[in-house]
Design a protein that fits this description.
Number of helices: 16
Number of strands: 10
CATH architecture of the largest domain: 3-Layer(aba) Sandwich
Radius of gyration: 23 Å
CATH class of the largest domain: Alpha Beta
Largest sheet: 8 strands, mixed
Distance between the termini: 37 Å
Helix content: 40-55%
CATH topology of the largest domain: Rossmann fold
Strand content: 5-15%
Shape: globular
């Protein structure tokens, strides 16, 4: 199946003046924000460099950015060599990672050949603080990164006089929606034409019910793969475009797996069974917790990880035993009352997941029984939730065959 790299091979010689900006162009610019541009792209005023100039500098740089699931370097190389993107200009790089603020933020603006500006927000990188910030969305109405996104949109708008598109992938998509919704009202209403959220998580109800979000809603284009997990987390009122991916399960979050036909993504018939089931279970579990419980869970998990001294996922991977021992020792310092509450939260997630998968399995059995294929349906409910969960996982055929045996017990 073809992806964004193939798109550049097919249509890279077609200028924006010949064929207008499209949803695939949006994903390319969202992904280019993952390139480590520090010291390469101007951060002051309206100074800029072309994409081809950036690639030359990047190739000489030894400081590459490790991103879970995708490597932006091949995309940068092909885009910089294409007629469509080579002369796109990059400006106003803003980047900050701060453990104390629980902030991982990066944004850059692209001046495109059609006279518009695409404001691109980077998603989660390999830093622990970046992943912690993602989890903070579950209990905070606004994070430092979201506030920085709104400020950035205002700044980019002040340095340009053209129409604006705002977008990002994963957490970058969340930042794009928040930044576009909560920037200066005149910029949001008069300057911004489209807001792209590429498989990004949603928001808590305070944001969804705000007048700012509602005002931006008609301009939001949310694109998710058919087995999306990240893109369905938390709330969102926008319509979703569901597309096909060449990957399976959570790996569909990788944008290089998204299927491209011509200048569009290949549309799927709907969400996959595994996406529906997993999101139903997670939504029920998150809905069962109040903000203080969500904060307790996130804080306990990430405090333990950070106590190991790990700053990135790679740090944990390099010395797994030492990292895990440090995390366990940190967890032991948690008070007994707090440990019990955390255990109950995890048990609740297990029970809810088991119920969801078991109910889906029974539904499938009922359908088969009505068709006369099976002689009976097991009616006993005396099994434990964990046993039911194992049955559901085996019978529902929902694409989670790679789960560990311990997760089935």
């Amino acid at each position: 199946m073809s992806n964004i790299l193939d798109y550049l091979d097919w249509r890279g010689d077609i200028l924006f003046s010949e064929r207008p900006f499209n949803e695939v162009d949006n994903l390319i610019l969202s992904e280019l924000a993952y390139v480590n541009m520090k010291g390469l792209v101007p951060s002051e005023d309206s100074s800029s460099i072309t994409l081809s100039e950036l690639f030359k500098k990047y190739r000489e740089s030894k400081d590459k950015l490790v991103i879970p699931m995708n490597d932006p370097e091949p995309l940068l190389e092909r885009a910089a060599a294409s007629d469509r993107f080579r002369n796109v200009r990059l400006m106003l790089l803003r980047e900050k990672t701060d453990i104390d603020e629980q902030l991982q933020f990066c944004a850059v603006s692209f001046i495109i050949g059609d006279g518009s500006c695409y404001i691109s927000f980077r998603g989660t990188d390999a830093t622990i603080v970046g992943w912690r910030e993602d989890c903070n969305f579950s209990f905070l109405s606004q994070t430092p990164g979201q506030l920085a996104a709104a400020d950035y949109v205002n700044e980019a708008a002040s340095l340009t006089d053209c129409s604006l598109r705002v977008g990002g992938h994963s957490k970058g998509g969340n930042f794009a929606v928040y930044g576009a919704a909560f920037c200066n009202e005149k910029i949001r209403d008069k300057r911004i034409t489209e807001i792209y959220c590429n498989d990004g998580p949603g928001f808590n109800d305070n944001v969804i019910n705000s007048e700012q979000y509602k005002a931006a809603l008609p301009k939001i284009r949310k694109i998710i793969p058919e087995s999306s997990l990240v893109g369905l987390l938390l709330s969102g009122a926008e319509e979703k475009t569901i597309i096909k991916s060449s990957a399976k399960g959570i790996y569909q979050h990788n944008p290089f797996s998204w299927c491209v036909t011509g200048c569009c993504f290949e549309k799927a018939d709907g969400l996959s069974a595994e996406s529906t089931l997993m999101n139903e279970a997670l939504s029920k579990w998150i809905g069962e917790l109040d903000d203080s419980d969500r904060k307790l869970f996130v804080t306990s998990v990430f405090d333990s990880i950070e106590a190991s001294g790990a700053l990135t996922l790679n740090d944990i991977n390099k010395n797994k035993l030492m990292s895990y021992n440090a995390m366990m020792n940190a967890a032991k310092e948690i008070s007994a009352e707090r440990r019990i509450k955390l255990f109950n939260m995890l048990r609740s997630l297990t029970e809810i997941s088991g119920e969801v998968f078991f109910n889906e399995a029974r539904k499938k059995f009922e359908q088969i029984k009505e068709a006369g294929i099976l002689p009976f349906i097991p009616e006993s409910k005396e099994k434990s939730v964990s046993e039911n969960s194992g049955d559901a996982m085996r019978y529902a055929d929902s694409g989670f065959g790679e789960m560990s045996e311990s997760s089935r017990e």
